[in-house]
Amino acid sequence: MNVSTLARQLKITSSELLEKLPSLGFAIGARAIKIDDKLVPKIMAAWKKSEKKEAFKKELSQVEERGKEDKDAPIKKEAKEIKIGETIVVKDMAELMKFPVARLMGELMKNGIMVSLNERVDFDTATIIAEDLGFKVIKIDEDIKEEISKKEKLEALLKKRDTKDIKAPVVVVMGHVDHGKTKLLDAIRQTNVVDQEAGGITQHIGAYQVVTHNRPITFLDTPGHEAFKAMRSRGGQIADIAILVVAADDGLQPQTLESISVIQKEKLPFLVAINKIDKEGADIDKVKQQLAEINLMSEDWGGTVITQAISAKQKTGISELLDMILLIADMAELKADDQGPAVGTIIESHVDKSAGPVATVLVQAGTLKMGDMFFVGHVSGKIKTLEDWKGMSIATAKPATPVRILGLKELPAIGEILEVLTDKKDFKDRLKTSAGKNKSWRPTNTSTNSDENGEENISVLNLIVKSDVLGSAEAIEEALSKIKVPETKVKVIKKGLGQVTEDDVLSAEATQTIIVGFHIKENKNVQALANEKNVTILYFDIIYKLLEDIEQRLKNIKSKKTIHKFLGRLEVLAIFKKNKDGMIIGGKVVEGKISKNAKIKVLKNNEVETIGQLASLQSARENVSEVAQGNEAGLEYKGDPIIEIGDTLEFFEEIYE
Ligand code: GDP
Predict the structure, then answer these.
(1) How many structural domains does the chain have?
(2) Domain limits at 652?
(3) pTM exceeds 0.90
(4) In angstroms, what is the span from residue 592 Cα to ligand 1's centroid?
(5) Residues 296 and 196 in one domain
(6) In Å, what is the CA distance from 85 to each residue of 89, 125, 155?
């Protein structure tokens, strides 16, 4: 190739190119006219790389330098921990490390990684760089990362406030399933929730307050089933005190230990309620013995752990338990600022058919008032209704008070922080910045689980989960992910609130998905569409029934082998049309035959690049159901539009045996 041709392609002059080539590592002589064709792609690649580097340097030069004076000072050597997910934005990483962004970019560049401050680096890269700089890196999954960032945000907001006013303790009840958490919450509240529940499992979280010795105590009514672990650890983050319920006839069980680890992680003051002491076989000392074995020595045995024997059923030991809670609250000196704009955490949210988004908030600082303008993450709102846990309208809510609010523009995520903004200008500014990047939970398209790279032998059961309360859908998803049937996997492709819709059925049809409805009613029209489209919709009211059913289905798919039955092969000769999810192509059948409804493997250099579906087939401009070897065919292909002339399409039928 001529030097001038290449220079034109690179949009520079020939002399500029000749001048630059040595620095890119190509010595072709300052007066060369031709370049070896084999070198051309290498020069182009090197050129692009160097351009990127220059752009990067330019960007770097525009970054504001703060703390520049210590630019060359040795980096402090305390191995500070930072927590990173699969990937992290360079700017965020710098913030986590409390490190100037420009300098971090410089460090990345030294390692040959050219990224701008808004680009992401993967976990491994981030780890290498951070460790070089004396940090210890811990990998966290995205959900936990989100929880941690919410927690940090809350801590930062609360830190700014005075903590002079005594506040009511917020208590969370934890423990193994069936050890009596609901019954205890019930005994404390003096109502009977248990009998109204389907299957003995609390399905919705909530909160309530009781008053003892003229002092209020707030209880988070977190559900007890294993399925609700996500919410339980959330409870751990917003509560001040935990009650660990252990059944005296059953002792410490797996979820008891799990709860203890949450309590210890959150450094929550706690007490142990040894429950069911009325039951035959109850052995209080045995529970204390088991606690002692894991270094939780009961106070009356000379340790520090407060234990209280109770019977939630007979309501014995309950007032003593409440006294103990007040004692722990006093020792912990629980305080909050009860003046000024409110800060709180969303513990429950759902869409009410007539009222729109409704949320339960636990106020944690300040006073929440009617008419307050607020933000919950990116969701804005104005308090239109404020109700206490009994459904009574109230004008204000102080710290540790759970309240139901109306006036949200959208449904907020559970665990998200509510912040009241009293300054109108601040509020408006925030409205502007949050517009367009609303990351609040939306009822559709919430896709989880990334693609199963390299997991070819895993059969995936796709599900759409619809439920009446957002918390349930989240909890179900977590519980589903725990079902372990070898070589199978559940993938929730969408989760949402409310009825199963026609839209759900249509997306289920396209993705071979089962729809699971939890605590929602069947809709006849939707069911009719589902029958027509051959889509299965399952309805449940009890979570373990749902889990059992899905587990059985996984076992069933596992016993079936997926077989790709070869039908024929076509050489692609022409591309007629290309859309974002399909193409119309022409070609010749070179082997076997192709027939309607077949699936298509797209082969490039004998490697399968993607799998699509045959949508329609033509031969000699007529719609046909089959085209045999030796004939030309036109076809509509649905899938990744990556087919090029010269590719081979392999047609097959997918069968299960
Ligand atoms: P959770 O799963 O921890 O919320 O447990 P529940 O509160 O649903 O209780 C599980 C079962 O134990 C229910 O049948 C309760 O009636 C029963 N139960 C709870 N507390 C007591 C108690 O103090 N004594 C007896 N005999 N049964 C209890």
Answers:
(1) 6
(2) 562-656
(3) no
(4) 66
(5) yes
(6) 10, 12, 21
